[in-house]
Amino acid sequence: MDSLSPAARLAQQIEFIFEVDKLKEIFRQTINTQSRRPENDAEHSWHLCLCVIVLAEHANHPSLDVLHVLKMLIVHDLVEIDAGDTFAYDTAAMAGQHDREARAADRIFGLLPPDQALEFRALWDEFEEKQTPESKFATAVDRFQPMLLNCRTEGAAWNHHGITQDRVVARNRHIAEGCEELWRYAENMVQSAVDVGHLKPAP
Amino acid sequence: MDSLSPAARLAQQIEFIFEVDKLKEIFRQTINTQSRRPENDAEHSWHLCLCVIVLAEHANHPSLDVLHVLKMLIVHDLVEIDAGDTFAYDTAAMAGQHDREARAADRIFGLLPPDQALEFRALWDEFEEKQTPESKFATAVDRFQPMLLNCRTEGAAWNHHGITQDRVVARNRHIAEGCEELWRYAENMVQSAVDVGHLKPAP
Q1: Predicted TM-score (pTM) of this structure
Q2: A86, A97 in Cβ contact below 8 A?
Q3: Is the ipTM of this complex over 0.85?
Q4: What is the CATH number of domain A6-195?
Q5: Residues of B in contact with A23 (CB under 8 A)
Q6: Using CB atoms and an 8 Å cut-off, which of residues 89-128 of chain B contact chain A?
Q7: FRET label pair with B115: which of A69, A203, B153, B156, CA 20 to 30 Å apart?
């Protein structure tokens, strides 16, 4: 805790809550299944939290800290307010991604009182490093949810960008590090998408 | 747990995760601060989760179960997939609201394996009943966040519906039951909105 009064801390925290309202305007390549409009980062983050509380029983790690996973996912995309969304298959844009996002983390988490700025930055660093059971499971749902939406929109985002099965598998096989059961499901789902012609096989 | 295999449970859970993608298309009366478009329930739910992890230290209850608050907020609006959003100041529509939402809860949570259907229904019932420290704090942020967005959009939703200060205070004073510090902030914020002409005083 810093030396601010509770009222002064609260006022600073509410400015942060207002600032991150911008996450609702950061649009992804994934298409929502109903309206077929691009998904934004805020609704994506909610959908991942929902996935966690539904699917946590399948995690590889037997005693996952679910609260910690949720905290990571609630803040994991905030850096995109400044750095923008980087499409998972855009290798050119991915080159400078971490530097752009680290600068964004400095600014955005820096709006909070110092102790909370450190806590939230540590959550984002942990998510990026993908070494703990919690960050591996968070990554598993962050990779799986766009695949699910792609499969339920006839492969819309994959086909728009000419992505093939081999690239989908290479990008997403890390799901198994957090949740082997989910990766088995995902592999079958991707094969079905190929079988019905919604995803092109490897060239 | 039921007698389904892990793979069969997972398949059923993923159909639930797909079904609730519809939450992204349920629009509220509140206007987002950047694009000035109506907020949807999914991004609203994310914003509430963010509020919880930032503001939990201010809760009246000294040892709040933050994971439980988050779980409640992640699922609290799912019933609106069937029942629609009911505007907080529409007293006519609010009359049948609970019955409509309870039928929606039966259908939507019923898509999950039985043990999870019971768990999620209990979360929603607890949120509706507002008797526990966790549901009181969840309600506090659910009431506060739309007030904040209203104040930062020059009172857009309030003015669109002719809402006056007395109704805003009457509707939202329950914030104090979960978080007195937040209600003090909110009262001042509302008075400032009146002072600058973004919210009409009581007639």
Answers
A1: 0.97
A2: yes
A3: yes
A4: 1.10.3210.10
A5: 43, 46
A6: 112, 116
A7: A69
